[in-house]
Amino acid sequence: MTKIILVEDHELTRKGIVYALKPYKDIQILGEFEDGKEAFEYIKGTREIPDVILMDIAMPVLNGIEASKRIKNLHPDIKIIMLTSIDEKDSVLSAFSSGANAYVMKNITIDKLISIINMVLNGEVWLAPNIADYILDVLSSLNNSKENRETDAKNGDNFNLTNREKEILGLIAKGMSNKDIANKLVISLYTVKNHVKNIIQKLAVEDRTQAAILALTEKIV
Fold first, then answer.
1. Tens-of-pLDDT digits for all 221 residues of the chain?
2. Is the N end or the C end of the chain the one with fewer CB atoms within 10 Å?
3. Where are the alpha helices (DSSP H) in 147-188?
């Protein structure tokens, strides 16, 4: 029996998903929640831990990205499927940085959703096709150049990144813009741009998106 909770702020959508899952006798819905904070509080207080969370991204109080981070810190083994209508690349990077195991668009069929649930339970990662093509192209490019780099980059040491560059790379991997990074670190936008330029050069990638994906795949941050 696969135990699931659903986190979705739109009641009609939430009830529709629950209704669509009812015919599947090997799935048990443990609960439905309107925002990430409700879901996190449930996870923190329950003994019946779900196997899978279907998580919306854009929600009030606590969004799906932040909720996923908190939940994964408590229970790393819970599988999180981002079920969203947002197809922006930065959101994908933020989702996987937060610990998501799949990124699924809401127009998916219920049979396909069941298939993805089974995939993540088996340790696989799934991306919506319109996003996957782009990400896979980037990963292919990074893998081709990987032969020219040292493979043990978990601390970023072999890329010669400074502590500040590692910090900024981590924020890039979370989907933050240069302006957001400048505000968070209380430094000038010009300084951030210079750091980003240096990071891109040291990682031997073409842009900040490739840098973010490399950071996540190589566990640099």
1. 999 999 999 999 999 999 999 999 999 999 999 999 999 999 999 889 999 999 999 999 999 999 999 999 999 999 999 998 887 777 777 788 788 888 999 989 999 999 999 988 988 778 777 776 666 566 556 555 555 554 444 444 568 899 999 999 888 877 677 888 999 999 999 999 999 999 989 888 877 767 877 777 677 76
2. N
3. 163-173, 178-185
